[in-house]
Specification:
The chain is an alpha+beta fold. It has a single domain, classed as YhcH/YjgK/YiaL (Jelly Rolls, Sandwich), CATH 2.60.120.370. Helix content is about 15%, strand content about 40%. The protein contains 3 helices and 11 strands. It has helices at about 5-10, 25-35, 40-50; strands spanning about 20, 60-65, 65-75, 85, 90-100, 100-105, 125, 135, 140-145, 150-155, 160-170. Strands 1-9-5-11-3-2 form a 6-stranded mixed β-sheet, covered by helices on one side. Strands 8-6-10 form a 3-stranded antiparallel β-sheet, with no helix packed on it. A two-stranded antiparallel ribbon has the order 4-7. Strand 2 (about 60-65) and strand 3 form a beta hairpin. The longest helix has 11 residues, at about 40-50. The chain is globular and about 45 Å long. The relative contact order is 0.26.
C-alpha cells in the first residue's frame, strides 16, 4: 500500500496524459475524489487526450450531470478585472489549449467578501482577496475543488487571447 503522495507522484491516475498538474492542487482532496469515482476520472483523462485544439467553442456533455467539457475563447484580463470564484457541486479542471494566463488559487477558508451563491450556475464570486498567482500554459492544468477559491483569466504580461478547456466534474459525495 502506498501513501497518497506516492500515488500522486506515480501519475497512474493520469492514464498516460503527458501534461503536468499544477503544484497548487490539493493532493489529498484529489485522491479522495478520484477514489470515490474512478470511472468519472478515467473519462476526464480520456477526454484530455483528444485533439483539443480542434474543438469548437461550446459545451460537450461527457457523462450527463456528472462531467461536462466547456471550450471558451477570451482575452486575458487585468488582475483587478479577474474575479475570484468558487463552486460547491463541481470541481473545475482548467487547461489552456492555447495561450498563457495566470490563475490565482487560495483556500476558500481564507476568503473574504463573498457574494451571493448562484445555485443554478454553481457559482459564487468573491471580492478582493490576496492569493498567489500561478502560470498556466498548454503544458499544465489546474484542479479547483470546493475548498479552493480561484481566479482565472489574469493576464501574463500583456492581455492576449486564450482558448481554454474547463471540465466540470461532479463532486463525489
Amino acid at each position: 500500500m502506498c501513501t497518497i503522495q506516492e500515488w500522486f507522484d506515480s501519475k497512474v491516475w493520469a492514464d498516460g496524459l503527458g501534461l503536468s498538474l499544477d503544484p497548487s492542487v490539493d493532493v489529498d482532496e484529489f485522491y479522495k475524489q478520484y477514489h470515490a469515482s474512478p470511472e468519472r476520472w478515467k473519462a476526464v483523462f480520456a477526454f484530455m487526450k483528444k485533439d483539443l485544439s480542434s474543438l469548437e467553442v461550446g459545451k460537450y456533455p461527457i457523462i450527463e450531470g456528472e462531467l461536462t467539457a466547456i471550450v471558451s475563447e477570451y482575452n486575458t484580463k487585468e488582475p483587478e478585472d479577474a474575479r475570484w470564484e468558487a463552486h460547491r457541486r463541481f470541481i473545475d479542471l482548467q487547461y489552456l489549449i492555447s495561450g498563457e494566463e495566470q490563475m490565482g488559487v487560495m483556500p476558500l477558508a481564507d476568503a473574504k467578501n463573498a457574494g451571493a451563491y448562484n445555485a443554478e450556475k454553481d457559482l459564487i464570486f468573491y471580492g478582493d482577496n490576496d492569493g498567489p498567482l500561478y502560470r498556466a500554459t498548454s503544458a499544465n492544468y489546474f484542479l479547483f475543488f470546493p475548498g479552493d477559491l480561484h481566479r482565472p483569466g489574469v493576464k501574463s504580461g500583456e492581455a492576449a487571447p486564450v482558448k481554454k478547456l474547463v471540465l466540470k466534474i461532479a463532486v463525489a459525495e
